[in-house]
Amino acid sequence: MSLSETLKQAVKATGLSLYRVGLDSGVPDEVLGRWLKGERGITLASADKLADYFGLELTPRKAKGKGRGK
C-alpha cells in the first residue's frame, strides 16, 4: 500500500472531522478535504505532519530480487 493510501486510511479511520484533524496535525482542513477527494496532492511536509500525528513511520521492506539497492 502506498504512503498516500496509508495516510488517507488513517484520516478516515479516526472518525474525527477534517477540521479537528487539521487543527491537531497542522495540515489545513481545506487541504485535507481536497486531497481526500483526489483533487490535489499533499506536500511532503504535510505528509510528515500527518504521519507524526497518527504515529506512523516508514519501515523498509525486504528487497525484491538480487542486487537491489547495491
Structure description:
Helix content is 56%, strand content 0%. It has one domain. The mean pLDDT is 91. By secondary structure, it is mainly α. The chain has helices at residues 3-14, 18-25, 29-36, 44-54. The protein is elongated and about 45 Å long. It has 4 helices and no strands. Helix 1 packs across helix 4 (44-54) and helix 2 (18-25) crosses helix 3. The longest helix has 12 residues, at 3-14. The two termini are 24 Å apart.
| N-C termini distance | 24 Å
How many β-strand stretches? Answer: 0
Please work out how many helical segments DSSP would assign: 4
Radius of gyration: 14 Å
Largest beta-sheet details: none
List the domain count as a whole number: 1
Strand content: under 5%
Determine the fraction of residues in helical runs and give it as a percent range.
Answer: 55-70%
Shape: elongated
Low-confidence blocks of residues: none
Arithmetic mean pLDDT: 91
- Based on secondary structure, the structural category is mainly alpha
Element order, helices and strands?
Answer: HHHH
